[in-house]
Task: structure prediction
Amino acid sequence: MKLLDTNLKTCELGTSPFCIQTEDNQIKLHASAIMVGARGRGKSFFVSNLLGWLKFDRIFIISPTFESNQSQFKHLNIQPEDIFDPDDPLVVEKIVALGNAERDDLIEFRRKKQILKELKKVYGKPSNLDDDYTLFDEYIDPITRNWNEPEHQRGDKRPVMGLFVDDAQSTAIFRNKKFLNLSLKHRHLFSMPGDESSLGLCIIMVVQSYTSTGGSLPRTIRNNATHVGLWRTKSKIELDLISQEMAGEVSPEKFIEIYNYIMSDPSVHTMMFIDLFPKPNHPSMFRKKYTQFVVDEQKSISQNLQMHDVSSTSRSHVKHHYFSFVFLFYTLYFFSSEILT
Result:
């Protein structure tokens, strides 16, 4: 069996699925993350820190128990109108409406900014408007009679919006088809005009078990996760299922090996973090407690970077041998010429 090259080449089209800039050691956004752990493991504490590290401009909450954990999230300035009951049948529509309003405010601000730019270009200053003065009075300060610059609550910044779903596993939210649809197309939400990428919505879901009967975490959500946080589990069946569902990125045997290495730390707060879309500069797709990369000591940094990219590793070997051959050829040619002369 062999492969025959067609010489067909693909090119980059559209926008990246991870178009929000984050700091070097943070995960990519937009994300659809699942945090799985038993009660008292520190899931909410970790998510509170993660939401702060990722610098969200607005965070929506779907949780029946958020008020009891509110002190942990106080630093995120979450507004009361952004907290929702998972059993509310209109919860998805309400969040989408708020996200669309953010998008509309940004588009309107840019529209006004462009109009004011044209007014300055054509008229110079407001006193030159003459008969058109009343048509553009919203762009003129009534006191100073100078141009009135349009304002935006985020200063023309694209808002980074997140959704945190907590303690909702036995509620109606995971049986809500509109929520499933929201989670699948989260990065396409709140579309912008032209070729500009959608604002999108990052989702972090916290559950106590990976699967359960009645209101469980749907497989469609699990299969579309970009990141998974896993605390120590007593269920071998659950752990085996997670390792099998990760098999497209890492073998189940390697997954269990790394899990056991991380969980050798006896703390109940120990967590294995799996980044299915790590940045090129990240030395591993696995982390302990998010703050430490798990690196295979028997491999080089470049091998750890490529542990889930066999094709790139193969290409590097071919390139290495090619340049070694070229170097050897020219070395022999040089010395042969010296001897002959």
About this structure: Helices lie at 43-53, 91-123, 177-184, 219-223, 236-245, 252-262, 301-305, 310-340. Residues 305-341 have pLDDT under 50 and may be disordered. The CA atoms of residues 232 and 260 lie 10 Å apart.
